[in-house]
Amino acid sequence: MAESMDSITAGQPSGSDTEQLKLSDLLDRGWKIFEELDSSNESFGPNTVHRVKRGINMLEEASRMVAQLDLFSRNEEVEEIATADLKYLLLPALLGALHMKQSSQHKRLETVQTARLYFMDFLKKCLDYNISQFELPRSSDGDGVSEESPEGVCSKGKSFTAGPSNLVAMAAKRQSKIERYRQRKELETRLSDVRRVVESGQAEDEVNRDFYLLNVQRWITVCLEEIEAIDQEVGILKKMDVLKQGPANQPTQQSRHAMKPFILTRDALQAHVLGAGYPSLPTMTVDDWYEQHRKQGVLPDQGIPQKVTVEDSADAQERDEEEKERRAENDDEASLLKARNWDDWKDNHRRGYGNRQNMG
After folding, report:
1. Residue 115 to residue 306: CA distance in whole angstroms
2. In this structure, are residues 135 and 175 in contact, taking their beta carbons and an 8 Å threshold?
3. Rounded distance between C-alpha atoms, residue 13 and residue 4, angstroms
4. Cβ atoms within 10 A of the Cβ of 228, count?
5. Angle subtended at Cα 47 by Cα 44 and Cα 50, rounded to the nearest 5 degrees
6. Of the candidates 171, 96, 141, 103, which has an alpha carbon nearest to the alpha carbon of residue 231?
7. What is the C-alpha to C-alpha distance for residues 198 and 181, in angstroms, rounded to an integer?
8. What is the pLDDT of residues 250-272, one digit of tens each?
9. Is residue 12 a contact partner of residue 19, using CB atoms and an 8 Å limit?
10. Residue 187 and residue 195 in contact, taking contact as beta carbons nearer than 8 Å
11. Cβ atoms 77, 86 nearer than 8 A
């Protein structure tokens, strides 16, 4: 079976990437292109896009040849598959992975949906042959979103209350992710050991068979993770498409009234009875107060002329001088009377009268 299968070539027109290539060569080259793209940090330039398309064309041609040969049947067990044919089980998984490498943004939704179909086809084949025990992801609904929704969001995009059943489901989902990650690391460790023996060219048929089965088991974990990521991305892409359609198809938002500050009743009553806790704030400026009292005519300087004439000034000066002379005359009479009284007192009293301190 293997010799006759490897002798089949891809009958493509002249100049095609798959011209005169055997089935095994198509798979090996397409697989190599994916591993090189997956391990490199090269940006998505024209060369990368061309390599992705070239790898997809090779793997699609290999899938058509496998379908013509009818290599796999649901009535068989994995032990009945020839060692040389086991690697062709990876064709759908590699095709889905290469589709995910495409960088076209305007066809991203179509691309990820196509990749999901390839991943699901691979997982169904693995279940048919009982290669590994796992739960097949639920099929997508009419909108292309998986019924198994992420935490906190139902299949229709509405939030739900995290009840006990939902918490149990979320915990089980988290545990399955941890277990899947652990299995993937173990398979990669075993694969690295077996790969060195296979690449040396000295591996026996049993070692080659173990190598391909380990690859299939590893890709099972990869496909489960990719499908979960695709389901979330599809929901995001569909929402983006709705937003890009413009505001014409979006419901109009009702105008909101001005919001009033929310004040607790207890605080409002307390401030009304006890005050705000600080001195009262001014209600008007000094200029406003002066202008208000000026209009009411209650200012102390109102009614007093602001300007004094020359005549009024002379009269006032004359009155001041007369007042000064009158005060001077009164002062002179009082001084004279005081002096006379003092002289009379000295005439009647000798010097030292009343000084009791100097008595000898």
Report:
1. 98
2. no
3. 22
4. 17
5. 100
6. 141
7. 25
8. 555 566 665 555 555 556 666 66
9. yes
10. no
11. no
